[in-house]
Amino acid sequence: MTKLSVNINKIATLRNSRGGDLPNVVQFAKDVQRFGAEGVTIHPRPDERHIRYQDAYDLKPEIHTEYNIEGNPIDKFMDMVLEIKPTQVTLVPDSVDAITSNAGWDTLKHKDFLVDVIQEFKSNGIRTSIFVDPVLKQIEGAKATGTDRIELYTESFAHEFGLGNKKAITPYTECAILADSLDLGVNAGHDLSLDNIRFFKENIPNLLEVSIGHALISESLYLGVENVIQMYLHKLA
Ligand SMILES: CC(=O)[C@@H](O)[C@H](O)COP(=O)(O)O
Ligand SMILES: NCC(=O)COP(=O)(O)O
C-alpha cells in the first residue's frame, strides 16, 4: 500500500500572494485528511516564501495522519523539526535560492554530515528519509547514513514520461529493488501527477509513500473550476 501525502506548499504560496489568510493552510490540511489523504507534507524554505516556520507549528495539532517535513537541515530547520517532532523528516539538499528542489544528496560525499543529522533525528523518535537521485551508488550511500528511508527524486522520470519515454522508469525500479534488499523504505516525489502516478506505482515495488503538491493542487483547480463557476452563476442569477 502506498500512502498519499499532500504537499501544501502551493496553498501557502497563494495565501502569501495577498498577505491575508485565504486560503487557510491549516484548514486545507484538515480538509485533505478528511478527503482521504494519508499524510501532509510541507517544505519550508529559508526565505519562507511559501510555507512559513510558524505554519509548521500551527499545523502540528491538526495533522492526525503522517506529518512529513522536508528541507535542508540548517540549524534553524533542525531546531524546528526537533521541537515539532513530526512523523518523518525528509532531508533535501536545496540551496537557499533554489526555485524548487533540483537534485538529491550526494550520500557519499556528505556521509559524515548525514550520519550525524540522521542520528539526531532518530534519537528523538523522528523517522528519517533522504532525497536521492535514482543512482545505485547513492542508494548504497544512503544505507550507510543510517536513514530509515529514501525519497526518490522523480523529476527526470516525470519529464521523460511526459515525452513518452517509459524507459525512464528503469533506474527507479532498480534503485527501489536495491533499497528494499538493504531494508531501506522507499518514498518518492517531485512532479508526480495524475498522468504519471499509476505507471510509477506499478513499476516500483514496495513504494511506501508519495508526496505530491504542484500537480495535485493544479489538478484540483482544473477539476474544481466548473463547480465553482456554476456556484457563482447561481448566486448572480
Ligand atoms: C523535495 C521535493 O521535491 C518537494 O518538496 C519540492 O521541493 C517542493 O518544494 P516547492 O514547493 O518549493 O517546489
Ligand atoms: N517531496 C515531493 C513533494 O513534496 C512534492 O513535490 P511536487 O509534487 O510539488 O513536485
Automatic annotation (TrEMBL):
Binding annotation for 1-deoxy-D-xylulose 5-phosphate: 45, 50, 100
Chief location: cytoplasm
A Pfam family assignment: PdxJ
Active site: 43, 70, 190
InterPro entries on file: Aldolase_TIM, PyrdxlP_synth_PdxJ, Pyridoxine-5'_phos_synth
Single GO BP term: pyridoxine biosynthetic process
One GO cellular component, as annotated: cytosol
Residues the UniProt record annotates as site (Transition state stabilizer): 151
Domain of life assignment: Bacteria
MF terms (GO), sorted A to Z: pyridoxine 5'-phosphate synthase activity
Pathway: Cofactor biosynthesis; pyridoxine 5'-phosphate biosynthesis; pyridoxine 5'-phosphate from D-erythrose 4-phosphate: step 5/5
Cell compartment(s), UniProt: Cytoplasm
Binding, 3-amino-2-oxopropyl phosphate: 7, 18, 191, 213-214
Enzyme Commission number(s) of this protein: 2.6.99.2
Keywords on record: Cytoplasm, Pyridoxine biosynthesis, Transferase
Protein's job: Catalyzes the complicated ring closure reaction between the two acyclic compounds 1-deoxy-D-xylulose-5-phosphate (DXP) and 3-amino-2-oxopropyl phosphate (1-amino-acetone-3-phosphate or AAP) to form pyridoxine 5'-phosphate (PNP) and inorganic phosphate.
Similarity annotation: Belongs to the PNP synthase family.
PANTHER family xrefs: PYRIDOXINE 5'-PHOSPHATE SYNTHASE (PTHR30456:SF0)
Identification of the protein by name: Pyridoxine 5'-phosphate synthase
